Amino acid sequence: MVSSCHQLHIFFFPYMAHGHMIPIVDLAKLFALRGLKTTIITTCLNAPLISKTIQRTKDLGIDIDIQILKFPSVEAGLPEGCENLDSITSYDDGSLELIFKFLKATTLLQEPLEKLLQDCQPDCLVADLQFPWATDAADKFGIPRLVFKGTCFFSLCTLECIRLYEPHKKVTSDSEPFVLTNLPGDIKMTRKQLPDDLIQDFETDYSKLMKEIAESELRSFGIIVNSFYEVEPAYVDYYKKALGKRAWPIGPVSLCNGGIDDKAQRGKEASISENECLKWLDSKKRNSVIYICFGSMVNFSASQLMEIAKALEASGQEFIWVVRREKKNKKDEEDWLPKGFEERIERKGLIIRGWAPQVLILNHEAIGGFLTHCGWNSVLEAITAGKPMVTWPVFADHFYNEKLVSEVLQIGVSVGVKEWVAVHGDYVTTEAIEKAITELMVGKEAKEMRSRAKKLGEMATQAVEEGGSSYSNLSALVEEVRSHRHRP
Ligand code: UDP
């Protein structure tokens, strides 16, 4: 007989990339706030990235444990110390090939994970979608495995429709638009906006992984999605009802960060202090600043960065621009900035080299828009803050997210990227960037987009409040895990 006051113990196992670790740590916090025992599994060099968050939750009287696994970098042929995708995508040749090597390395974690599950016997394992083998690992010990998906329902539905109905095979060229068969809305895409491996008929490493992910999902307890019902009701319903998936929208998870420190200290250590950042923003007018950031993996060439710099200057807008490049020496000439750029934009712009406190920035009233690569966390954080976007998709699920933002929600201006290019992106000209920035920041359309975005932001907040849709979904999920435990 199992006691009904047993405290459920949930394991969280994020993929080692900021876009995956950040929301899963927030998710662990959400479960812990509901009184559940939570443990995050990670590796030695990734642990410091979450230690501050864990310390802050401890100060609130909430304990999140951490368990460390040894990452097999060298065994998998990766450089020693390479434990996070961040280091791979910073290389100039940081390609899909290396990302796959990294993924292969993670499969070696199955055995140590099983040992941990055997020793600790948690009640549930929430593991990243990138770990299809986690379902088998949990199965061995009769532990339900939940899949964490850091994308939106719209993108999940799109991908499934492409797989099921193969609409991309009905067109004769890569640039001819095809309609996404059966998907609500008249959504069109081109083959160029999809990765080659998805549309090729022969099996590749990528298509094999996709198949494994899909199969492991079918055998899992269900899917947790960092989204909320009201932002994409047609697609949540389609995913659950038409496609028959067991899924819980429980986001936006970033809203569990109430204080300034919580908002500012997510992921890596920021390259600017919270005070300095807020002081700069406080000196600006409401909705006057555009924030530009391409997430934690996109790695643009110097010439692409130069186009962005020229567009910013030509647009005349005030801006905060995050660039994933460090300046080693004050006197270093930087090949990605026009001569004299920083002197000329001194009052108008702030360049953050490295890591920015993104959620803190997005929520400031001076921010009027966000130029984003459309990583789902960034998109959802912007929606939550009520900010419209310039959409600049690069790879991964970005092109689907762009469609949701610009066509379904109508809170975005597309910069016009045509092609899916891993990590380095398709080339965009100064003129196209300047035009999109101006459309986002100035004029009647801009105002309307901002007002739509603001409403969505309010809905996001309501969704996670007691009685809101995400709040209730999380309660329902916890109950399902609890009753699974009590099954005879
Ligand atoms: N992020 C941040 N500061 C940065 C860059 C990124 O805080 O300078 C955070 C951002 O808030 C988001 C995550 O890193 O939570 C990036 O996830 P996303 O899905 O947007 O993109 P990815 O990095 O996976 O491409």
UniProtKB/TrEMBL annotation:
<keyword id="KW-0808">Transferase</keyword>
<dbReference type="InterPro" id="IPR035595">
    <property type="entry name" value="UDP_glycos_trans_CS"/>
</dbReference>
<dbReference type="GO" id="GO:0035251">
    <property type="term" value="F:UDP-glucosyltransferase activity"/>
</dbReference>
<comment type="pathway">
    <text>Pigment biosynthesis; anthocyanin biosynthesis.</text>
</comment>
<dbReference type="GO" id="GO:0047213">
    <property type="term" value="F:anthocyanidin 3-O-glucosyltransferase activity"/>
</dbReference>
<dbReference type="GO" id="GO:0009718">
    <property type="term" value="P:anthocyanin-containing compound biosynthetic process"/>
</dbReference>
<comment type="similarity">
    <text>Belongs to the UDP-glycosyltransferase family.</text>
</comment>
<dbReference type="InterPro" id="IPR002213">
    <property type="entry name" value="UDP_glucos_trans"/>
</dbReference>
<protein>
    <recommendedName>
        <fullName>Glycosyltransferase</fullName>
        <ecNumber>2.4.1.-</ecNumber>
    </recommendedName>
</protein>
<keyword id="KW-0328">Glycosyltransferase</keyword>
<dbReference type="Pfam" id="PF00201">
    <property type="entry name" value="UDPGT"/>
</dbReference>
